[in-house]
Amino acid sequence: MSKRFLQIARSMPDQGFSEAQVEAFKRLYLAWKKQSQSQLDWAEVKSPPEEAVLHYEDFAEVDTERARDLLSKLAVCRLNGGLGTSMGCVGPKSGIEVRGGETFMDLIVTQIRRLNEVYGSAVPLVLMNSFATDSDTKKMIRRYEDELEIYCFTQNEFPRLRVDSNLPMLKVRHPGQYSYPPGHGDFYDSFTQSGILDQLLSAGKEYLFVGNADNLGASVDLKILAQMDKSGVPFIMEVTPKTRADVKGGTLVKTPDAHLQLLEIAQVPKDYVEEFKSVKKFKIFNTNNVWINLKAMKAKYDQGGMELEVIVNKKTVNHVPVIQLETAIGGGMKCFEGAKAVKVPRSRFLPVKKTDDLLLVQSNLFVLKDGVLVKNPERQFEGLPLIRLGAYFQDLEAYAERFEEIPDILELDLLTIVGDLRFGKNVTLRGNVILVCEQGSLTLPEGTVLENKVMTGSIKMGEL
């Protein structure tokens, strides 16, 4: 063991880290050092052949009796470690209202509760929280206690390391400033250490569906579950065709030893970042929806655990350059012999990262059915509009103030807004709409219809 890590290990208990966290960070740190000794050979990185990826449309429909049997073996986990800071909110992102007065968490619970009602099943919900979301989440879910069995566990917390010394930033622990949650790949260790893996296995559960809490397209799919049960595949990653909006997302690659492996942009050498983003070379990306055979995962930990690829995330905190050692849940793919990817419809990937995304999911592009957002059949175009709201809209409170009513965007292709604009009721946007209000503010009055409009400068009401 390196002298540098011994220094870190000696300091962590004094900073308030538990013995289990010291041991977990040791495994991550040593994996990083081992990985840093071998460079990624870009010439060996290939997009997986077509036959290596299963196709969702080839999966059979599932009848009611089969569905009941499958759901008796299933649990659902949502990755709930994120805060709403990207939209100017305090607290868990899953507590943000997204549609019809309902939050992300409301919709997640509704999805599972409805499944249980329809099929007479008892699918439980598991939440992986971070130190930043755990307390508020536990308060939030109290209102669901009579509706659903819910398990919570908290992922690990590790110290940020200074770039100049590779030692922790300070001698005191300060969650969120000098320490961090190490990515959703920490799920495997934290979930196992929490004891919930053993509890679910004892309750007869065999499969776990995992998705991000902010992905409104991530719902239980019986066809994928049936395929997993029938084939005996221990791990399935859902991938979907890449678009221009997804060029930075992790993709699936085939390694020289013929394994399928997740590759994130942070792992790509600088000279090849643009090639990584190419839609021609890498045509699919990871939705972060994964399906795990719990017995196979238990066997992995009985044999010593899982070693994932380490992602080095560089940041600056209080003017100090630091690194965070992280892992991705999709990185577990290479650890399961026989793991598969399945190309799913784009509808299974509907994340809300910014208010741009929020406008999409709040609009008439979607209808809400049993807690799941379904694309409005009246939308005649295949893809979704590209939304670029300006700086005035990025804070959730300011965003809400600017829409007296969400506009009709059923026939919209692109919306770009720069400046202080507000929307009245019954506004319709079609085609490509670009509005640049350079001076003052503008309110689009009730009943405004804009179709293929590009307007810049000081917009006059008569021009609309």
UniProtKB/TrEMBL annotation:
CDD domains: UGPase_euk. Keywords: Nucleotidyltransferase, Transferase. GO terms for biological process: UDP-alpha-D-glucose metabolic process. Substrate binds at H184. UTP binds at K93, Q155, G183, D214, K353. Gene3D superfamilies: Hexapeptide repeat proteins (2.160.10.10), Spore Coat Polysaccharide Biosynthesis Protein SpsA, Chain A (3.90.550.10). It holds the Pfam family UDPGP. InterPro entries: Nucleotide-diphossugar_trans, UDPGP_fam, UDPGP_trans. GO terms for molecular function: UTP:glucose-1-phosphate uridylyltransferase activity. Belongs to the UDPGP type 1 family. PANTHER family: PTHR43511. This is UTP--glucose-1-phosphate uridylyltransferase. It comes from Candidatus Lambdaproteobacteria bacterium RIFOXYD2_FULL_50_16. The lineage of its organism: Bacteria, Pseudomonadati, Pseudomonadota, Candidatus Lambdaproteobacteria.
